[in-house]
Structure formats: structure tokens, C-alpha cells
Design brief:
This protein has 321 residues and is mainly alpha-helical. The chain has one domain. It contains 16 helices and no strands. Helix 3 packs antiparallel against helix 9. The protein is globular and about 50 Å long. The N terminus and C terminus are likely disordered.
Length: 321
């Protein structure tokens, strides 16, 4: 056995990293809905998200320096990190936290599970990618699932719930565009440093949004214990671990594989919301979830739909060197 062939010796390590990264975006992200719901009961949404991401970004910088990583970036890389930070975090996450004031955490997670459907339609509109038959079936099922989900009497009659649903939909568009943008933009070489810049710039944007909306800023010492615990978990696991994993996966595997987290997140969010926050799970929600996730599955079985030839072969080899 010769070990001269680099990619082969790289593989086991990469495989383990990929598995751990998927675990992070599946399980840890599934729990963030419940944690955000706990925190937003006491704290203003943009203030909450700002503290979470600014702190996470600063911690990443400190860890990076301790590991001897360079924080140097070009202007272009910094700008790209800022853009993605706004698409994914300032808007994509900050507005979801705001929406959680109006809707249950399990419901929010289920609505967001239609994300691959949005990515697919956006690839069709922006990149002219044809949608294959299997994916069309998926899109149809996804739309039926969403309609079943959002037309429930128990939900529609709640005050502010329509507003919450629309906010979440806007976030999905922002995430979908961000996912396509990441595929072809220039970022800081190191995943960790890249995540740090995205979080830190997003945290500052969110702080500005918080001031513009006149939110009340409360010192962490005055938060209730459940909120303090939720914030620590959100910063360390929900932000640093899961988001670094997400960035790593977007560069390592195709966007549609990363989007599979959308099957698992809502199920974990529904269970935690029901178990910890006593949220109701209606029969219609369960049927909607089944139809919606089947649709997402159909979209994702069609691996080739999402392959972006320009960035596959050569780009991957370049990155491995």
C-alpha cells in the first residue's frame, strides 16, 4: 500500500468531518428554534440576535488567533462575508427570531423546511437551471404541504400569525439567495475565520437594526436563568459549531445535500417545542409535515438537478491542495 495518493489519505478525515458537520446542522440547528423562543419571550428579537452573533464572532476571532490562524482578509472577502452575514444572519435569522414572537417554534421550523423548494425555484429563475420531473413532483407536494400547514384555523386565528408566516417566507428567500451566492464568491480561506467575519458583521448590523427599531437593551445579569442558558447554548453550539459546519459543508458538498437538514430540523424542533414549551402539534401539522418533507425528498433525490458544473471538478481539486 503506497500512501502517495493524497486524496485517498485525506478521505477518512474528511468523511468524519462531513458526518460531524451534518450532525451539527441537523440536531443543533433543530434545537435553536426552541432556544430562540425561550429567549425572545424576555428579550427584543434584534437585540437577542445581535448579542448572539457579535459574541460568537468575537469568540471565533479569539479562538482563531489562539490556533495561530491569520485574520487577514482582502476587501473583497470582507465585503462578501458581510453580504452573506446579512443574508443568512442579520435578515435570515434576525427576522425569524422576530417571527417567533408570533408563531410556535415547531411551526416556524416546518415552514422553513420548504427551503430546498425555494432554492430550486431560485436556481431556475436566476441561473436558468431546468427543473427535472422528480423535482417538479417535489415542488407540487411541497406547495400542498405548505398550504396545509399555514391554513390551520388554530394558527391563522392567532394574532400576528400571518405577519409571522410572511416574515419567515422573506427569510427563506434571503437564505436561498445566500446559498447560491456562497457557491461562487471569494471568502477568507479558513472556514472558521470566514464564519467569524460573517457573525461579527451580522451582529453589528443587527445592533444597528435594534437601535433603529428602538428596542430595549437589557443587561445579561438581569435575564432569567432559562434565557441565560439558552443564550450560552445559542452562542456556542447554535452559532459557532453549527454555522461553521454549515459553511464547511456548502464548500465541500453540493447545496442540495446541505439542504437536507431541512428534513431533520423541523422534526427535532417540533419534538422539543412540544416537550419543553408545551406547543400543540395538530394532526393537520403532522400531515402537512409528511407531505412537505416527502416533497423535499423528491427534490433532493434528483442529485443532478443541483450540480453546478462550473465549480465542481477543478475547484474541488484546487481546494484540496
Amino acid at each position: 500500500m503506497h500512501h502517495t495518493n493524497n486524496p485517498i489519505s485525506l478521505k477518512p478525515k474528511n468523511t468524519l468531518l462531513v458526518i460531524l458537520a451534518f450532525f451539527s446542522i441537523y440536531v443543533i440547528w433543530g434545537s435553536t428554534y426552541m432556544l430562540n423562543k425561550v429567549a425572545v419571550a424576555e428579550l427584543a428579537p434584534f437585540f437577542l440576535a445581535s448579542i448572539r452573533f457579535t459574541t460568537a464572532g468575537l469568540l471565533i476571532f479569539i479562538i482563531s488567533i489562539a490556533m495561530g490562524k491569520s485574520l487577514a482578509v482582502t476587501k473583497r472577502q470582507l465585503l462578501n462575508s458581510f453580504i452573506v452575514g446579512v443574508l443568512f444572519l442579520s435578515f435570515g435569522n434576525g427576522v425569524i427570531v422576530w417571527a417567533l414572537k408570533y408563531v410556535d417554534s415547531g411551526f416556524a421550523a416546518l415552514e422553513i423546511s420548504a427551503q430546498p423548494l425555494v432554492v430550486l425555484l431560485m436556481m431556475r429563475l436566476l441561473q436558468g437551471k431546468p427543473i427535472k420531473l422528480m423535482s417538479l413532483v417535489g415542488v407540487a407536494l411541497g406547495i400542498v404541504g405548505i398550504v396545509l400547514l399555514v391554513t390551520q384555523k388554530e394558527i391563522v386565528t392567532k394574532e400576528g400569525s400571518i405577519m409571522g408566516m410572511l416574515m419567515i417566507f422573506a427569510c427563506m428567500l434571503s437564505w436561498a439567495y445566500g446559498s447560491l451566492f456562497v457557491g461562487k464568491a471569494d471568502f477568507p480561506k479558513n472556514f472558521f475565520v470566514n464564519t467569524g467575519y460573517q457573525m461579527f458583521t451580522a451582529g453589528l448590523t443587527l445592533a444597528m437594526a435594534s437601535l433603529v427599531f428602538g428596542e430595549q437593551w437589557i443587561s445579561p445579569t438581569e435575564w432569567g436563568e432559562p434565557v441565560q442558558i439558552s443564550m450560552v447554548l445559542l452562542i456556542i453550539f447554535g452559532s459557532i459549531v453549527a454555522f461553521t459546519s454549515f459553511n464547511y459543508l456548502l464548500k465541500t458538498v453540493s447545496p442540495d445535500k446541505v439542504a437536507t437538514s431541512t428534513y431533520v430540523n423541523p422534526i427535532i424542533a417540533l419534538i422539543l417545542g412540544w416537550y419543553i414549551l408545551d406547543e400543540q402539534i395538530t394532526l393537520q401539522s403532522i400531515i402537512a409535515a409528511a407531505v412537505l418533507l416527502t416533497g423535499v425528498y423528491f427534490i433532493n433525490t434528483n442529485r443532478t438537478t443541483f450540480s453546478i458544473p462550473r465549480f465542481s471538478g477543478k475547484a474541488q481539486q484546487m481546494k484540496k491542495k
